[in-house]
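ok so i was messing around last nite and threw this chain in just to see what happens. nothing serious, just curious
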Amino acid sequence: MARSKIPGPLERRHLVERNLGESRALQIAEAYLAEGRAVEAVDFLRIGNGADRLRELRRQAVESGDVFLLRAVAAATGEDPEPGEWRDLADAAAAAGKESYAVEARRQAQRGED
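result:
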């Protein structure tokens, strides 16, 4: 079995907390993304100033109905999701059979409209 290029949980925490260079942070983010672990890549994209990749992940989160990914990207960028994004995410989640995500996204859309 090949060893993964991504850090384990404890090493990940230490890496996020220390002063990584941008290029190293982006390398780690890409390793997470290559393994389909987008939520874990977000912190490293933030550290590495990977704004374009964060925008792409935000779009993917909405299209795939992934509440956790949208929240992680929003926290990293400081840009709260708009009610329309939550509605689109809810529709995508419902279409993918992720009913609990759809319910949460609808709740967040309603909350943003109040």
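not much to say yet. The chain has a mean pLDDT of 91.
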